[in-house]
Specification:
The structure is a single chain. The relative contact order is 0.17. By secondary structure, the protein is mainly alpha-helical. Helix 1 packs across helix 2 and helix 4 crosses helix 6. The chain has one domain. The longest helix is centred in the N-terminal third of the chain and has 29 residues. The chain has a 3-stranded mixed β-sheet with strand order 1-2-5. The protein has a two-stranded antiparallel ribbon with strand order 3-4. It is about 55% helix and about 10% strand.
């Protein structure tokens, strides 16, 4: 029995290393299709992983549901829970690794690829609308969305609209589509979740914003 915590810790460590190695491989393949070097892909992954620990406070919303009586002490050390809660309100934050980095890279792709503005707008609007329709609020947790549907849709839309630029277009509409449709357009639902904090892209490298863009490129 005394060895159980040590074995569990070792298992979690090995699982984390496996996930990192898999993500490195996926990132290398995906961003090679976007014309990035291996070094740039690793840098982007590093920014995502390190940024996953950082949540930036944006604003607060009036809560329409009762808040939990208290936050477990073991969570108070981690963002966004280490921010002071406001009574009767929900603090909305944005995760650097799960939202800021993918959105910034999308803007980089827009500036450095010959994408038609109308096709780009149509792709982002279409994916945002679908993300809004298939996402749903989970009381006490956050906004849920099926992980694999949006990447397939983003890759399909990008291939139909602009086959020659389908990889960057798939990443952009997959990333911004989830960010807009499942996060920004669901802000009103956050009031009803009964949580003191809500983080856009809060799952970091496991968040729908990050994963949708990555898988969309692999499928395009």
């Amino acid at each position: 029995m005394p060895l159980l915590p040590l074995r569990m810790l070792l298992f979690i460590l090995l699982l984390t290393l496996l996930v990192v190695f898999v993500q490195i491989g996926l990132v290398s393949i995906a961003f090679d299709k976007l014309g990035l070097s291996a070094e740039s892909a690793y840098l982007l992954l590093l920014c995502t992983l390190s940024g996953s620990m950082l949540n930036l406070p944006l604003f607060s919303l009036k809560a329409d549901a009762a808040m939990p009586p208290r936050i477990p002490p073991e969570l108070l050390r981690w963002p966004p829970f280490n921010l002071p809660p406001t009574a009767g309100k929900v603090m909305v934050t944005i995760n650097v690794g799960g939202a800021v980095v993918p959105a910034a890279f999308s803007l980089y792709l827009i500036a450095n690829n010959p994408l038609h503005p109308l096709q780009l707008a149509a792709a982002v609007i279409a994916v945002s609308a679908i993300a809004r329709m298939i996402s749903w609020p989970i009381p006490g947790i956050g906004i849920g969305i099926p992980m694999l549907i949006i990447p397939f849709i983003a890759a399909l839309i990008a291939t139909v609209l602009d086959p020659s630029q389908r990889a960057p277009l798939a990443y952009i509409c997959g990333t911004l589509g989830v960010l807009i449709g499942a996060d920004l357009l669901r802000l009103n639902d956050i009031r009803k979740l009964g949580v003191p904090f809500a983080s856009i892209g809060g799952a970091g490298s496991f968040d729908g914003v990050y994963i949708s863009g990555l898988l969309a490129v692999l499928l395009a």
